[in-house]
Each structure stands twice: as C-alpha cells, then as structure tokens.
Amino acid sequence: MDKGFVNPEVAFIDSTHVKANANKRKFGKKVVRWVARAYQKQLEEEINAERAENGKKPLPLKKESRREIKESTTHPESGYYVKSEREKMFAYSYHTACDRNGFVLGTIVTPANVHDSQVFHKLFD
C-alpha cells in the first residue's frame, strides 16, 4: 500500500465454489436455522417504517425458519451444493474481495450452502 500498488478505495467482491474431498453418497441429515438474507430484518423494519409514514398497516415480520440439510460424514465442514445443470456435490465457497489491480484485500471460506449475502458485510468490513 505504501508503494501505491494496493488501492482499497474500490473493492470487487465475488465467490467461487471449490469441490470438497467428500463422498457425496455418505451424509446425514440435520435441521438448521435458515436465514434467507443477512439484511432481512433491517429491510422489513425499513419497509414497515415507510408504510407507517404513509398510513398503511405494517407487514408481518418473517419468523425464523428451519430447514433440513445434508451434512457430509467424510467432510462435515463442507456444504451440499446444488446449482441448476451442475453436478450436486459437497463444496466450499471462497468469498474474496480484490482491488482494481487484482490484489486480494480479504477472503472468507464457508460451506457452499451459505449464501453470499450472509458473508458480504463481514468481508466488506
């Protein structure tokens, strides 16, 4: 940074999936808490504040939900990844922030079934 190569004023953030060294036929099922978006509660509160200002009734807040996921017995830190035409597999997501020169500013690795929105704020900070 002192030499001017790294410039964190602009950050490009994306993720990619990397296949885990896990047998996709060896798994257990477990129920976990599921959050669609990290900012869901904040978004709903802002919408309801605006509705109140306009004399409308507030929308009901979404309740915490749970879902069943597959957990690898050979590589439990990975997440089961399913995307349209691609093969179903256990994988990881590598979330990375880079500057305009391609220097990595930060990275976070999560199971592949963790949505990008759940990691964005932590990586951005």
Structure description:
It is a single chain. By secondary structure, the chain is α+β, with helices and mostly antiparallel strands. The chain has one domain (12-124). It contains 2 helices and 6 strands. The strands form 2 sheets. Strands 1, 4, 5 and 6 form a 4-stranded antiparallel sheet that branches. The longest helix has 14 residues, at 40-53. The chain is flat and about 55 Å long.
Main sheet record: 4 strands, antiparallel
| SSE pattern, N- to C-terminal | EEHEEEEH
Rg from alpha-carbon coordinates:
19 Å
Q: Got a strand count?
A: 6
- Share of helix among residues? 10-25%
Total tally of structural domains: 1
Mean pLDDT: 86
In short:
The protein is of the alpha+beta class and 125 residues long. The chain contains two helices and six strands; from the N terminus they run ββαββββα. The protein is flat and about 55 Å long.
List the helices and strands and how they pair.
Elements: E1 12-19, E2 27-34, H1 40-53, E3 65-72, E4 79-81, E5 89-98, E6 104-111, H2 116-124
Antiparallel strand pairs: 1-5, 2-3, 4-5, 5-6
Keywords:
single chain, 125 residues, alpha+beta, four-stranded antiparallel sheet, two-stranded antiparallel sheet, flat
